Amino acid sequence: MTYAVTEQCVGCKHTTCVEVCPVDCFHEGSNFLAINPDECIDCGLCEPECPEEAIRSEADLGESELHLIDLNRQLAVAWPKITTSKPALPDAADWKGRPGRLALIIR
Ligand code: SF4
Ligand code: F3S
Fold first, then answer.
1. How many distinct structural domains can be found in the chain?
2. b (16+ CB within 10 A) / e for 21-51
3. Structural domain of residue 44, as residue ranges?
4. pLDDT per residue over 27-86, tens digit each?
5. What does the CA dihedral 47, 3, 53, 9 come to, rounded to 10 degrees?
6. Across 1-107, where does the E strand assignment appear?
7. How far, in Å, is the centroid of ligand 2 from the Cα of 41?
8. What is the CATH number of the domain that holds 20?
9. I need a surface site. Which of 6, 7, 17, 79 has the fewest CB within 10 A?
10. Between the CA of residue 71 and those of 85, 93, 96, what are the distances in Å?
């Protein structure tokens, strides 16, 4: 089992999640973070840290959302690790709640 970052992260990227991960499995893109599901130990520590509620357990994903785990894997292996939080993106408040953001991830 793993956790996955979902579209509520896109454009916000608060990065508070990375501070608590005991195995440093977050990776950073320009407007999204991804969890490497092959490194995640399913501890759940990151989930309550995200103010956007963007981090979800695999167990809580619906069938139509399971593709998010593969998306996280693909992006995680392509992006560098991030282990220290930084300021959220400047227009995070404007992105909050906006639908259809997965297509807007900058690869
Ligand atoms: Fe890291 Fe634990 Fe979150 Fe997995 S569930 S990404 S191991 S903090
Ligand atoms: Fe994204 Fe939430 Fe982490 S917005 S960067 S998953 S704290």
1. 1
2. beeebbbbbebbbbbbbebbeeeeebbebbe
3. 3-85
4. 999 999 999 999 999 999 999 999 999 999 999 999 999 999 999 999 999 999 999 999
5. 120
6. 3-5, 26-28, 33-35, 55-57
7. 18
8. 3.30.70.20
9. 79
10. 22, 24, 21
Token pair recorded at residue 18? 């990375």
> How far does the centroid of ligand 1 lie from the alpha carbon of residue 39, in Å?
8
- Residue 67: enclosing H or E segment and its boundaries? helix 67-78
| Total residues found in the chain within this entry | 107
Atom number, ligand 1, closest to the C-alpha of residue 42: 5
- Tokens for 57, please give them: 């357990």
